[in-house]
Specification:
Distance between the termini of chain A: 20 Å
Helix content of chain A: 40-55%
Strand order of the largest sheet of chain A: 1-2-3-4-5-6-7-8
Number of strands of chain A: 8
CATH topology of chain A: TIM Barrel
Order of helices and strands of chain A: HEHEHHEHEHEHHEHEHEHH
Low-confidence stretches of chain A: none
Radius of gyration of chain A: 18 Å
CATH superfamily of chain A: Aldolase class I
Number of helices of chain A: 12
Largest sheet of chain A: 8 strands, parallel, barrel
CATH class of chain A: Alpha Beta
Structural class of chain A: alpha/beta
Largest interface: A-B, 58 and 57 residues
Mean pLDDT of chain A: 96
Oligomer: homodimer
Chain lengths: ~270, ~270
């Protein structure tokens, strides 16, 4: 998907919501366990219920890989079920030497049809660049994550006063432009979002951490907004586990709509 | 596998060789393409041919994921085929928030029976710790990688003079002991291996980069040795693609044996 198309969808749906598809067999409604592929049934209902409110979907690969071969098949079917006007994110956090990264790119961009994949920056340029070789496909690079462990290394300050996440922003923005590269910026560090925005004014951010992890849409928009909106705010558990009865689809729709309404208001205020 | 058992196998086989199982459909011998699962056939021959010379096997997940569901099935069968007296490494370079990492741990330690998984450190403690919850299972954390991109971030020096990879060593060695945690230390930076060894004297290193990438066994042993040997030296392409005819097994055995002979000599010199 191109950046222009993504912005068009944000304006059309009045939303910059990403729904995280992190399904856990022990948490999905019990009646689904009768199906051959309960996770796929769950995802289909969630996607149908939320697709008017979301512009992006983000399956987290751990939740599929832990189910083995069946899980990988479910992931593939889920990707295919997500409507093509939604931005599809493989939340895989891959990254390896160049020779290997090109096979990961093949997995997500050829064997499946994701628009983007999340990548860890530790191994540097050649672990990221192979993903840019696919037209209209994106890298979403970990910059500043929402978890407690983010403090272990991401804020390390070098002798020039540059923090590690700032160095990741600076160097990686030499590898890929704003039409191919986004950053993961956690909602739980709202002051830091402003810092990230000042370093990369034009790139989109994928923002996890709203809802169960504590961030809010208003805070994220306050610090992270740019002229294109520049934000995809993810909610996973708050939407997909809103209800564990047969009504879980309607409950998910309601939670997604709540977030979309907040986003529509912000888009209106910002005149986008 | 316990550390004691691993050291016992190193002494018994007089080897600290790890064979990297990175099979590519375009590079394996053509006659294998007639099989239902050519990659599995390839891996079986390679494992049979090298198991007297290798103490560890390391499938790189990218090479399986790019084949979709079939690739995941091949990975699972391959893991099951590797003899249990070999240390099994899922070279996955995972790492996510704690809530997610525990599902990756489940994938590699429950759905499959790997002894260890490679992990990227960028997201910090809570992305690593869930893997320690499995008895006798290991984390192999990226410290200093063998690729060019390693220079982008891993050598960043903080205000206290500590490089990022040194900080990764220091902090992570508080999370897991030498009986549960190894480090990836690339063979292409031999001087730096000595630096890593001085920081973590007792941990095992998984060392890629020997062979196709340019490092040598002697150099790695010179700088990385410890009282337990402390090294698993990986070779992938140099062994598995030694020949592309029907004789590829014998050619792989020969290449593995060449490395094992070098290792036996070092073990003898070191009186281990």
């Amino acid at each position: 998907m191109t950046k222009e198309k993504l912005i068009e969808e944000i304006k059309r749906k009045k939303s910059f919501l990403c729904v995280g598809l992190d399904p856990d067999l022990s948490r999905i409604p019990k009646h689904l366990l009768e199906y051959d592929d309960p996770i796929y049934e769950f995802n289909k209902v969630i996607i149908d219920a939320t697709k008017d409110y979301a512009v992006a979907y983000k399956p987290n690969l751990a939740f599929y890989e832990c189910l083995g071969t069946q899980g990988w098949e479910t992931l593939k079917k889920t990707e295919a079920y997500i409507p093509d006007n939604c931005f599809k994110i493989a939340d895989a956090k891959r990254g390896d030497i160049g020779n290997t990264s090109k096979y990961y790119a093949k997995a997500f961009f050829e064997d499946m049809n994701f628009d983007s994949v999340t990548i860890a920056p530790y191994m540097g340029a050649d672990s990221v660049k192979p993903f840019f070789e696919y037209e209209n496909k994106w890298v979403i690079l970990l910059a500043l994550t929402s978890n407690a462990g983010a403090l272990d290394f991401q804020f390390s300050t070098d002798t020039k006063g540059e923090k590690l996440f700032e160095k990741v922003l600076r160097k990686s923005s030499e590898w890929g432009g704003e039409d191919r590269l986004m950053y993961v910026v956690g909602a739980t560090r709202s002051e830091a979002i402003a810092d990230v925005r000042s370093k990369v004014p034009n790139h989109f951010f994928l923002v996890p951490g709203v809802g169960a992890q504590g961030g809010t849409v208003a805070e994220v928009a306050k610090y992270g907004w740019n002229r294109d909106c520049g934000l995809l705010i993810n909610s996973s558990r708050g939407i997909i586990y809103a209800d564990d009865s047969e009504n879980f689809g309607a409950a998910a729709a309601e939670k997604a709509k709540e977030l979309q309404v907040q986003m529509a208001k912000i888009l209106e205020e910002k005149e986008l």
